[in-house]
Structures are given as C-alpha cells and as structure tokens.
Amino acid sequence: MKFGTFQLQSVPPWSNCYDVAQQHFEQMVEADTLGFHELWLAEHNARRYGMMGNVITLAAAIAAATKRIRIATAVSRIPLHHPLHLAEDLAYVDILSGGRLDWGVGKGYDALEFSTYGIDFETREERWNETLNAVRQIWETRRTKFDGKFYKLGDAELWPLPLQRPQLPTYIMVSGSERSLAWAAEHLLPVAMGTGPTPDQLRDRLNLYADTANAAGYSDDQISQVLANTWQLKPMHVSTTTERAIAEYRGGLEWYMGEKGNRAMFGFSEDKRPYDYYVQHRSVMIGSAEKIAEDLADYQRLSGVNNVICWFNMGGAASSASTSGAPLIFL
Questions:
Q1: Of 102, 105, 224, 303, which shows the fewest CB atoms inside 10 Å?
Q2: Considering the domain boundaries, does residue 278 fall inside one?
Q3: Is the residue at 161 inside a domain?
Q4: Is the confidence at residue 264, as pLDDT, over 90?
Q5: Residue pair 320/235 in contact by the 8 Å Cβ criterion
Q6: In whole angstroms, what is the distance from residue 37 CA to residue 305 CA?
C-alpha cells in the first residue's frame, strides 16, 4: 500500500491562522522525512475549516522544502481559476519540485465560495469542462491559444513547460457522483475517492470504472494500471492506545463535523450525531498502531484499493502528534 497525508488547513476556534500554517507545514516536511508517498493539499476559502484559497501557493512552498514526496492538489477547484494561470503556475511548481506534482481536479461544491469570486455556481459544470480541456490543450500544444465560451485566449508560446511531459498526471476527485467516476473512466484518468464509500461500495465503483473504460475501448492492461492508482481519503488518528487515540481525535472531529455541509459532503449522516457514531463508522480509522494496521489490511482486502490518504489532523485534532504513530504502521 501507498500512503499520503491530507492537509485542509482548518482554523478551529482554539487556534489561529499563523499557528495552523506553521503546524501544517511542519507536518508536511515530517511526512517527507518519514517516507510517505504523497501530500494531498486542499483548496477552500471563505470558511474557517479551509483557509487555502489557491492551493498552488502552498504547493510551491512545500516543493521547495521537501526532497522526495509527491505533491497533489486536492483539489484545484478549476471553475474558479483562469486556465492559463493554472497551466503556467502548475508547470512552474512541477519544475521547482523536480517533477513531483500531481494535479487533482474538482468542480467545487460550495456556492458561497463561488459567490465570493463573483462566479455563478450554476455555470460550474460548463466551466469545469472548459477549463480542464483548456489546460490540457495548452500543455499538449505548448501554445496558449484557446477558444471557448468563457475564455478566448490569444496565441503565444507557453512558458514555462511542465517538467513531466506531455502533461502533469491528473486525478479526478470523486466524492459521491457516479457521473464523475464514469467521466474519468471514459478518459482513463485515475481517481481519488472521498471518505463516503464503504469498502464494499469502493469495490463496486472499481468494477463500474473498469466496465465503463472497457466500453470506451481501453484494454484490460491499461485499465488495471490506472485502477492501481486509485486513492481514498480516510479520517485517521494513531496513538499509543486505542482509548487515547479516541480521546485525542475527539475535539477536532466534533468541531469539523459540527457543520452540516461537511457531514453530508464526506459521506456521513446529515443529522448531528454523537462522537461514538464517527468512532464506529467504517470510513474512520482511530486506534493503536496494531488496530490501524489490522483495519488497513481488512480495508485493502474488501475494497481492492491500495492507496490511502490519511487525514490525521481533521479540525486541527492533536496537531502536534498527527504523525506520531505513523512509523509503526507505514514504514
């Protein structure tokens, strides 16, 4: 299995922007030292549960501070970005990192975020398609020219070019929509799943992906290679004992899941539930190193997914100890 860490940059009431930024950066550098495969960097604005409005800013900073870990956007909310800025800025970070950048893309789901940028939420599907096509075309052709509904771009050379050619590895982020999964399969792009699907549901989704990709004309070998790159986000906390882990994770999770929209988006009940509901939920892993290792083995066997994005610091939970148990499990 491969493991990554998820960085949302939440600012809970007991913390502040400065401390959160410093703590998250330290955790990312530590993840590089510990041998994690990838950093997954989230992008949100206008809400205190995510303060990174343009994830490329953070990707550039961490690229300069790390040596080997891969860096993924999770996600670039591409309806909110200009395609040429994305193509240029992502290419620069790819160069700065030595070719370690993966581009995770999503549509965005919060109408408030769209409104703060003055973009009509109802246009997000069209903007997502157009911006994704524009960026990929610009990288492929090495020219800036693009003629779309929202963007009409003049012709010039693209500078800089991404180090990874012909373009950055691109992941489609799938939260709950089978339509997004089918689109990814039709284009043979790897996916990163949200927390919602259970292991059994993940197995079904992998089968749906394979069937859809096969119908689109891709070979079994091509499909297997891409499915081996499937990731899923898992809220997770490891400590010296399961009891201690449950106690440490409580404050951050309860605060973060106090937002109804967060509960629904991450596959939990929309109704407010007690902490024990999350402790027992199959999408959450909390416990000692031994328990988490057993849970991960069961998860891999049931789901067929080999790559896990570990959400150690949900809501700022136990930030100073967010990777304390990692060497016991992942290395």
A1: 224
A2: no
A3: yes
A4: no
A5: no
A6: 15
What are φ and ψ of residue 41, in 5° steps? -105, 120
Q: What is the pLDDT of residues 272-324, one digit of tens each?
A: 899 999 999 989 999 999 999 999 999 999 999 999 999 999 998 754 444 54
CA diameter of the chain: 61
Amino acid at 3: F
Read off the tokens for 244: 């201690």
pLDDT digits (tens, 9 = 90+) for 48-91: 999 999 999 999 999 999 999 999 999 999 999 999 999 999 99
Number of domains in the chain: 1
Report yes or no on 304 lying in a domain: no
The Cα–Cα gap between 53 and 188 comes to: 29
Domain housing 134: 75-92+102-166
Contacts of 329 (CB under 8 A, 6+ apart): 238, 289, 292, 293, 296
Burial (CB count within 10 angstroms: exposed 0-12, middle 13-18, buried 19+), residue 193: buried
Closest C-alpha to 20, from 325, 251, 313, 326: 313
Four-point Cα dihedral 202, 76, 72, 289, nearest 10: -50
Phi, psi of 4 (to 5 degrees): -125, 175
- The answer to the question of residue 119 being in a domain is yes
